[in-house]
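$ ./design --mode recover --in tokens.txt
reading tokens...
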């Protein structure tokens, strides 16, 4: 068990290596483009602009309880859901190929392979912070400001160990079952509509609210919105429960990764 907990601290043990690979991944993604890393800022800004134009301007949609003031309240709340969902989808969509795409690290180099999961999350957090930062600024400009909203990054904290565990689990399984990647893309696409991204759970029937509550994205999305737009803090017991569940999944993923990693080189 101590070994599994040590995997969680890999970014601390291999700090230089972790930061180097995160920077390489981020810079490699925008390498060769005219504006470079500026795309990380342009993309969420354009996304917010498009959603504001389409949903608030064309369809005149309003979030439940919001006045028809035309201030893009629906678009901001939708964007808040997308920011959280994109953090989840970027990690999960890449998870099955983390090991497969790095055969040299498996066969020829003594490399802490468990660090690949942390690197994927580090890259996704970089984009999450940019998107959520823009969301926060737009919320301050177009909505009322609540000092408690400064705690908004904590709303996704329970997702981090959960994503790490799933990343380890799927990356290990993906070495042996290459179809997993296609299945995960399908699941992520379905979750976009099965998560409260385009709607509020308050509009659902009690039965649907019960079932959608099992979706790990439901609580962080709703907590993000409540904190940013209403200044309402999440229920501490529920938040801690989600955090503990996330660490349980992380330990389960560490166990699967450890038990299967000896065979990676033979398969690759």
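writing sequence...
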């Amino acid at each position: 068990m101590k070994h599994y907990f040590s995997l969680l601290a890999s970014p601390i043990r291999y700090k230089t290596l972790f930061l180097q690979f995160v920077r390489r991944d981020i810079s490699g993604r925008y390498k060769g483009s005219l504006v470079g890393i500026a795309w990380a800022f342009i993309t969420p800004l354009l996304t917010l602009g498009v959603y504001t134009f389409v949903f608030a301007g064309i369809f005149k949609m309003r979030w439940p309880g919001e006045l028809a003031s035309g201030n893009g309240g629906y678009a901001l709340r939708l964007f808040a859901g997308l920011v959280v969902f994109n953090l989840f989808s970027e990690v999960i969509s890449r998870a099955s190929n983390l090991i497969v795409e790095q055969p040299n690290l498996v066969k020829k180099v003594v490399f802490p392979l468990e660090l690949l999961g942390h690197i994927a999350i580090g890259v996704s957090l970089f984009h999450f912070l940019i998107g959520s930062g823009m969301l926060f600024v737009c919320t301050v400009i177009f909505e009322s400001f609540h000092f408690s909203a400064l705690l908004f990054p904590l709303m996704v904290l329970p997702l981090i160990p959960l994503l790490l565990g799933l990343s380890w689990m799927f990356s290990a399984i993906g070495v042996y079952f290459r179809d997993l990647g296609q299945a995960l893309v399908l699941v992520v696409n379905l979750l976009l509509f099965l998560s409260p991204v385009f709607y509020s759970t308050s509009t659902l029937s009690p039965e649907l609210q019960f079932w959608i509550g099992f979706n790990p994205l439901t609580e962080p999305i709703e907590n993000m919105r409540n904190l940013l737009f209403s200044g309402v803090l999440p229920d501490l017991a529920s938040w801690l429960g989600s955090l503990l569940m996330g660490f349980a999944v992380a330990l389960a993923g560490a166990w699967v990764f450890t038990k299967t990693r000896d065979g990676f080189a033979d398969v690759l």
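exit 0
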